[in-house]
Design a protein that fits this description.
This protein has helices spanning 2-43, 45-56, 90-93, 100-107, 111-119, 135-142, 166-169, 181-185, 187-190, 229-245, 288-291, 301-310, 345-350, 354-362, 366-375, 402-409, 418-429, 454-465, 535-538, 540-553, 575-582, and strands at residues 57-62, 69-70, 76-88, 127-133, 149-158, 195-201, 207-215, 223-224, 250-257, 263-269, 319-321, 326-329, 332-335, 342-344, 433-434, 449-450, 485-495, 498-512, 519-526. With 583 residues, the chain is of the alpha+beta class. It folds into two domains: 59-224, Penicillin-binding protein 2a (Domain 2) (Alpha-Beta Complex); 229-277 and 286-582, DD-peptidase/beta-lactamase superfamily (Beta-lactamase, 3-Layer(aba) Sandwich). The strands form six sheets. Strands 2, 3, 4, 5 and 8 form a five-stranded mixed beta sheet that branches. Strands 10-9-19-18-17 form a five-stranded antiparallel beta sheet, with helices on both faces.
């Protein structure tokens, strides 16, 4: 009985021990779970919340489109169109390496190169694979459902006028920031400010919920330019044809509104298409009309005459004796094509007499001439604000010597840009008021600074009309129905050690209509090589076609009787009439 009783007592004790051990284990497990719950909720809550957000919550950038650029009549010149960029989280995509060949095929990338890029950037959470894709193409890639592949909305700049406005507008980079031209000059105005929002995404990057708006997007402001796209295209067409016909190296045209200082057209050749980013080269995109300087040749002569008139030493009745047709200054001899004898200043300009200009220049005080040229804008940048604009070169008058004075009066020894030269002619056309050059549309006539007296400018305009007569060097610049005041210029190109005798610059600058100037323009053709090389033969006809067409587009009233077609120089006629006349 005692043995049975001992066995009976042992069994309950063993049961109680096991029960106690189990209870202790359960209590310990409960305590561990309770501690873990407290730790997760209180201690590690911030860390875990951040980890959860990192997987499902995203702060997305809201792209802001760049402001539109239009011409003065609202025609779009630069617009931003929506595009999508493809990016990946390398650490996520690395977990699905079998999908890399599919992704490479959809993007048109080499699969091995893509795999290398992914595996070498595992420490990053963001890696662009493609920028500026069409939204439909990006949606197709997103639809593949590859983990770690995402898209983001951006904007790409598009230029409807293509190369017609290429140099003028410049272009933006892949991030839609201005890099050249007016896109750069007004980047602060055009650029938008990106916004941000917090969203919840699923594992495939699809937005499940918009949580909050962090910062609204601010689109860029629109910009209205002074450019008239009709005149811009006309200038582009005529310059391109002239450069091709003359087999020239390059060319530029600037057209200004005399009453406001607005740039109505600015064109260069050769040009480029800003929509084709792959073909843009640094040598192609500089705006020659603003950045390149050249020696203007005889197109500078009117401004030396202006200095003489302003000094009270000359007027339209003054006679200059150019006999015997040459003039010696130091060791240098200046000569004319013919011995013009005693001629008035209008004839000096009409015949572009170097001898006559030498006589005038040497009778003027250097400081007086320098002051006049400086007031007209030579040797200084204009007020245009265009990036990279050159100031040209006008030596200080203290350095002028007789030989230098004579050569400068012929357009050598000083340098200008086409924009500077056009601005100087516009100042004469506005009867002595130097108005600020502007690429922005103005509401009306702009104020300015008087640099020459009105009578002196009227007298000079009358003299320059003789240049465009049948006896003048600029007869091919005549425009049917309009009086034209202008001046031709031909200059040897400077090379190392001197001047090339077989490379020229052909220039024509002027205003129209001469009775009440509305437009000023300068045409410069660099190295014409088709046979003709003088400004009156190469640049003047381009001036006539561009300015004549612009005056008609602007509905400017004619100020001269229209002669019959047989009386007009062939280059001033419309294309169909010109062809018939040549036959």
């Amino acid at each position: 009985m005692k043995a049975r009783s001992a066995r009976g007592d042992a069994a309950p004790r063993s049961f109680r021990w096991r029960a106690a051990a189990l209870l202790a284990l359960l209590t310990l497990a409960g305590a561990a779970l309770l501690w873990r719950a407290v730790n997760l909720q209180l201690v590690d809550h911030g860390f875990l919340a951040r980890q959860g957000d990192a997987r499902f919550s995203r702060v997305l950038q809201i792209a802001a489109h760049r402001g539109t650029i239009t011409d003065r009549y609202g025609e779009p010149l630069a617009v931003s169109t929506p595009v999508d960029s493809i990016w990946v989280n390398p650490s996520e995509l690395a977990l699905a390496t079998d999908q890399i060949p599919r992704l490479a095929g959809a993007l048109g990338l080499d699969r091995q190169e893509l795999a290398r890029r992914i595996t070498s950037n595992l420490d990053r959470e963001f890696l662009y694979l493609a920028r500026g894709r069409q939204p439909a193409d990006a949606a197709a890639i997103k639809a593949l459902g590859i983990p770690g592949v995402y898209t983001s909305r951006e904007y790409r700049r598009y230029y409807p006028a293509s190369e017609v406005t290429g140099h003028l507008l410049g272009f933006t980079n892949v991030d839609d920031a201005g890099q050249e031209g007016l896109e750069l000059a007004f980047d602060h105005w055009l650029a938008g400010e990106a916004g941000a929002k917090r969203v919840i995404q699923d594992r495939y990057g699809r937005i499940v919920e918009n949580v909050e708006s962090i910062r609204p997007a601010r689109p860029g402001r629109d910009l209205v330019l002074s450019i008239d796209l009709r005149i811009q295209y006309l200038a582009y067409r005529e310059l391109k044809a002239a450069v091709r016909e003359q087999r020239a190296h390059a060319g530029s045209i600037v057209v200004l509104d005399v009453s406001s200082g607005e740039v109505l057209a600015m064109v260069n050749q050769p040009t480029y298409n800003p929509n084709d980013r792959e073909q843009i080269q640094a040598a192609d995109y500089r705006n020659r009309a603003v950045t390149d300087i050249f020696e203007p040749g005889s197109s500078i002569k009117p401004f030396w005459v202006a200095a003489g008139i302003a000094a009270g030493k000359y007027d339209s009745r003054s006679i200059i004796d150019t006999s015997p047709g040459f003039f010696k200054v130091g060791a240098k001899i200046e000569e004319d094509e013919h011995n013009f004898g005693a001629i008035d200043i209008a004839t000096v300009l009409a015949k572009s007499s170097n001898v006559g200009m030498a006589h005038i220049a040497l009778t003027l005080a250097p400081q007086q001439v320098w002051s006049t040229l400086t007031n007209l804008g030579f040797g200084e940048v204009t007020t245009s604000g265009y990036p990279g604009e050159s100031a040209g070169l006008l030596p200080p008058y203290s350095q002028w010597r007789p030989i230098g004075i004579v050569t400068m009066s012929h357009g050598y020894g000083l340098s200008v840009t086409p924009l500077q030269l056009a601005h100087a002619y516009a100042t004469i056309g506005s009867l002595g008021i130097a108005r600020p050059v502007s690429f922005l549309a103005a509401d009306g006539p702009a104020g300015g600074t008087r640099v020459l007296e009105t009578p002196a400018c009227r007298e000079l305009l009358g003299m320059l009309e003789t240049v465009v007569t049948a006896e003048g060097t600029g007869k091919l610049a005549a425009i049917p129905g309009y009086r034209v005041s202008g001046k031709t210029g031909t200059a040897y190109k400077a090379i190392a050690g001197g001047y090339a005798t077989d490379r020229y610059l052909a220039v024509f600058g002027g205003v129209a209509p001469a009775s009440d100037p509305r437009l000023a323009a300068v045409v410069m053709i660099d190295e014409p090589s088709a046979g003709e090389h003088r400004g009156g033969e190469v640049a003047a006809p381009v001036f006539a076609r561009v300015v004549g067409g612009a005056l008609r587009l602007l509905a400017v009233a004619p100020d001269s009787p229209v002669r019959a077609p047989e009386e007009l120089p062939p280059s001033t006629l419309p294309e169909t009439t010109r062809t018939a006349a040549l036959r």
